[in-house]
Design brief:
72 residues, mainly alpha
Length: 72
């Protein structure tokens, strides 16, 4: 799955390979706590330090969101 690969390359360093949380928080069930809009905004803006901002094209964001939803 493309979203899982994007996650491993861009997110796993802080959120863990299984999204269990390291420097960044555990992302399991994050979609039950935050809307897709909030998640996208967090990824693009990096509102919560030390999260960096990312430039993500729309298809990659859709693939990444699909992967994040699979963590629930």
């Amino acid at each position: 799955e493309k979203g899982a690969k994007l996650f491993r390359v861009n997110c796993a360093g802080c959120h863990g390979i299984n999204a269990q949380g390291l420097i960044g928080p555990n992302l399991h069930e994050v979609t039950s706590r935050h809307s897709d809009q909030e998640i996208i905004h967090q990824i693009i803006k990096g509102r919560t330090p030390p999260m960096p901002s990312f430039q993500v094209d729309p298809q990659d964001m859709a693939d990444l969101l699909k992967h994040i939803h699979s963590l629930d």
